[in-house]
Design goal:
369 residues; alpha/beta; Aspartate Aminotransferase, domain 2; 2 domains; 14 helices; 45% helix; globular
Amino acid sequence: MTTFSSSLQTLIQTRIRQDIQSMHAYAVQDAAGMVKLDAMENPHALSPALQAALGARLGAVAINRYPGPRVDDLKRALMAYAEVPEGFDLMLGNGSDELISLLALACDVPGASILAPLPGFVMYSMSAALQGLTFHGVDLTPDFELDLPAMLVAIRQHQPSIVYLAYPNNPTANLWDDDAIENIVKLQGQQGGLVVFDEAYQPFASRSYIARMARHSHVLLMRTLSKFGLAGVRLGYMVGPKALIAEVDKVRPPYNISVLNAECALFALEHAEVFSAQALDIQAQRAILLEALAGLARQVEGVAFWKSDANMILVRVPNAAQTFDGMKARGILIKNVSKMHPLLSDCLRLTVGTAAENALMMTALQESL
């Protein structure tokens, strides 16, 4: 056994990239027995009638065959649903995470780099690291807005291949100023790079960039069906000019979308009104939570929160670790983001759940402060 372990260690040390060895795998919190409000999932399950209808649909899928025309049917359905502009196309990914990785792979030319505001979605920097690209993070302002002068300086200095703008941002949940993003889009276009809008939380946002895409040949837009209500299905899509999508699509693995993923997504789009109603309920619950947090902030010194255009709310508390542990002890699992970035000091991220879940979460938050 000692020889086995020694050989295994030698194998890892000599055949696995040194930078990979020093990384940490993406951690998923154990949610067993908890009210799970840590991952921005849609809390609503399908009705029994829809569960039965979906089960019948999936039971009839030819899982003995590789994915075929149904994936093309899904692309057409998503293009109609998203109102993709004329002359633009769409490609599918196994969640947005795969699309982010494929973009890093496709854009890995000599001297390429990726740039994004920080704090932001961890996969932008991770995809760069895994592909061996340089990542440039540009800090937001203390109130989590884009630092436009710093962004423009960084774009001029580094000339990145890709600038990511999460819209709304994760974990801050806010949309960016229109003039600021247009300045970024213009400058990045002038220096010959891509701008990628990540609209993962579009079902809950007050604005989208998709209607403005037709003015730009260097802008891509990503969305996911995870927040739509299909987090377990793992399906994302990216929209852009046909010629640009065709080039990125060359690095996509064949059959990356399973027939079961495709059928689930088609089923959901056929019942889009159900998921739209769920999104409206989440928005209404978000408003109730924001009002409750405003009351809490008036009562407890050191509590602050920010406006949200997503299904999450960023909250600052006097002691994030203590509050997180207290809530977890009371059966409520949220996300402690306080160590992700200095600007997030003592911040927690709350997912908007059902009315009952939110009531439990607010009680646990008050008791844990």
